[in-house]
Structure formats: structure tokens, C-alpha cells
């Protein structure tokens, strides 16, 4: 009987701890999710050394999103920018040409969508 009382007292003391743990892990709000940088359209270079991908960012002040191209060197996990992150401009859909190491991508600026060519150097940015 004393053990039951002891365990019940411990349980009652732990309730605030359990409540605080549950409170810390509340679901994310839509606003919090929008603030994450989101990766999409990964493309592996033909030599298998790099991954090129699109990063989407959202500007809360203007309520607009924009994208730019980034890369990761697989062996060293070095990351870098291929195109700058500019508000009101979106770079996306990277694709390597058959004449590697040339890269093509879509650039949208002021509602105009154009394909761009980016000659890749032996040493990346």
C-alpha cells in the first residue's frame, strides 16, 4: 500500500514534466513551415561529383518566394551558390547538356521565363 502511494506521488510530480515535453513538440504552424528553405529538383552531374538543386526561400515582408541554384560536392560535402538568391527572380529546373559540363536552367524574372546556359568550369565556384 505504501508503494502505491509512493508511485502515485512520483507520477503526480512528473505530470508537469510530461506536459512541458508535450508542449515543446507542438505541430508547426503554416507560417513556420513557409520560413524553411526548401530543396527541389536535384540533378546529379554526369561525372557523379556534384548535385545541383533548387532552393526556394520565402520573403515574409513581400509575401513572395524566390529560388536559386546551389550545388554540393559529394565527396567533401562542400556547398555553394551557382546563381544568386534575388527577390523577384527564380532560377530553377537545372539540367546538364550532353556536352557536359554545361548546365541549362530556367530563369523567371518579371513574369518572363527564359532558359539560360551556364558553362561550368573545371573548378566550381
Secondary structure layout plus pairing:
Layout: H1 2-24, H2 30-34, E1 38-44, E2 50-59, E3 64-73, E4 78-81, E5 89-96, E6 102-109, E7 112-119
Antiparallel strand pairs: 1-2, 2-3, 3-4, 5-6, 6-7
In short:
It contains 2 helices and 7 strands, in the order H-H-E-E-E-E-E-E-E. With 125 residues, it is of the alpha+beta class. Strand 3 and strand 4 (78-81) form a beta hairpin.
Key descriptive features of the protein:
single chain; 125 residues; alpha+beta; four-stranded antiparallel sheet; three-stranded antiparallel sheet; flat
Strand order of the largest sheet: 1-2-3-4
Mean pLDDT: 76
Count of DSSP H/I helices: 2
Helix content: 10-25%
* Biggest beta sheet attributes: 4 strands, antiparallel
Structural class: alpha+beta
Shape assignment = flat
Radius of gyration from the alpha-carbon trace, in angstroms: 24 Å
* Beta strand count: 7
Percent of residues in beta strands? 35-45%
Structure, explained:
By secondary structure, the protein is an alpha+beta fold. It has one domain. The protein is built from two helices and seven strands; from the N terminus they run ααβββββββ. The strands form two sheets. The protein has a four-stranded antiparallel beta sheet, with no helix packed on it. A three-stranded antiparallel beta sheet has the order 5-6-7, with no helix packed on it. The chain is flat. The protein starts with a helix and ends in a 6-residue tail after the last strand.
Amino acid at each position: 500500500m505504501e508503494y502505491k502511494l509512493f508511485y502515485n506521488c512520483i507520477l503526480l510530480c512528473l505530470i508537469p514534466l510530461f506536459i512541458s515535453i508535450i508542449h515543446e513538440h507542438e505541430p508547426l504552424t503554416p507560417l513556420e513551415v513557409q520560413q524553411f528553405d526548401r530543396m527541389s529538383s536535384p540533378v546529379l552531374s554526369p561525372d557523379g561529383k556534384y548535385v545541383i538543386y533548387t532552393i526556394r526561400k520565402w520573403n515574409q515582408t513581400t509575401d513572395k518566394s524566390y529560388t536559386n541554384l546551389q550545388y554540393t560536392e559529394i565527396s567533401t560535402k562542400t556547398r555553394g551558390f551557382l546563381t544568386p538568391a534575388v527577390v523577384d527572380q527564380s532560377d530553377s529546373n537545372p539540367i546538364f547538356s550532353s556536352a557536359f559540363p554545361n548546365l541549362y536552367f530556367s530563369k523567371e524574372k518579371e513574369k518572363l521565363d527564359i532558359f539560360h546556359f551556364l558553362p561550368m568550369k573545371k573548378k566550381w565556384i
